[in-house]
């Protein structure tokens, strides 16, 4: 129980990319932290690659960044700022995003698993297990991760790994509806129950999301559109969250 005696005390949110957990569940995360829970956002695919080429390079230059920028270092700094706003911890694993693992186009990210990438869920699972085993505060009592709406391969791999971790260790699990994919035309209806953040949680969430400056134009068509979209969107979790988590 947290210090209020109303919910989990130790929460781990496993985010595929540097923004997914905050875009999708930032209201819940800041609410849990405010209630006294230890909340950690662990992001899986955050490793830098020197001198990227091809599609991997285009993923940064199409956002207006120069070729010599360390794109992932910029994104890690954005995530540090966002998690600070929410009052939660942040951990960055050094695994590489899909454009550095044999996915050479935007379409490929949402298609079959690339040759040679079949072992990625196991690699993610090992990294998550190592993180939990090294925690001085022990096991978590709520594990959060993606539903993988939108079918991005990194989200699919993380869902597979998180589901296996929850099953193997008997951890309570809730999967968020992936934002912004859930907002897009033709998106699948998210599974689970909606949670409506409070005004205070929404204020913190949109401020935190604004820290992801490299992503807002691409993902939401700008900051103002992000604020409008997220203020109107509940956070949906499957399985439903434990009773009265905050």
UniProtKB/TrEMBL annotation:
<protein>
    <submittedName>
        <fullName>LmbE family N-acetylglucosaminyl deacetylase</fullName>
    </submittedName>
</protein>
<keyword id="KW-0862">Zinc</keyword>
<dbReference type="Pfam" id="PF02585">
    <property type="entry name" value="PIG-L"/>
</dbReference>
<dbReference type="InterPro" id="IPR024078">
    <property type="entry name" value="LmbE-like_dom_sf"/>
</dbReference>
<dbReference type="GO" id="GO:0016137">
    <property type="term" value="P:glycoside metabolic process"/>
</dbReference>
<dbReference type="InterPro" id="IPR003737">
    <property type="entry name" value="GlcNAc_PI_deacetylase-related"/>
</dbReference>
């Amino acid at each position: 129980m947290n210090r209020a005696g109303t919910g989990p005390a130790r929460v781990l949110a496993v985010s595929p990319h540097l923004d997914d957990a905050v875009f999708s569940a930032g209201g819940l995360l800041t609410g849990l932290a405010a209630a006294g829970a230890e909340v950690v956002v662990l992001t899986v695919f955050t490793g830098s690659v020197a001198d990227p080429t091809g599609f991997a390079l285009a993923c940064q230059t199409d956002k207006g960044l120069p070729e010599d920028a360390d794109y992932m270092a910029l994104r890690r700094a954005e995530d540090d700022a966002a998690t600070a706003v929410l009052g939660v911890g942040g951990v960055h694993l050094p695994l590489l995003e899909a454009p550095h693992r044999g996915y050479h186009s935007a379409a490929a990210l949402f298609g079959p698993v690339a040759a040679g990438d079949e072992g990625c869920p196991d690699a993610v699972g090992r990294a998550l297990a190592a993180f939990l085993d090294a925690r001085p505060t022990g096991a978590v009592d709520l594990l959060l991760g993606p539903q993988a709406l939108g079918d991005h391969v990194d989200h699919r791999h993380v869902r597979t790994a998180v589901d296996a971790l929850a099953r193997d260790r008997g951890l309570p699990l809730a999967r968020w509806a992936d934002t912004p994919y859930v907002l897009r035309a033709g998106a699948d209806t998210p599974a689970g129950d909606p949670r409506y953040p409070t005004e205070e949680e929404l204020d913190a969430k949109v401020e935190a999301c604004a820290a992801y400056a490299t992503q807002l134009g691409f993902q939401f068509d700008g900051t103002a559109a992000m604020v409008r979209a997220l203020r109107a969107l509940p956070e949906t979790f499957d399985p439903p969250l434990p009773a009265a988590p905050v």
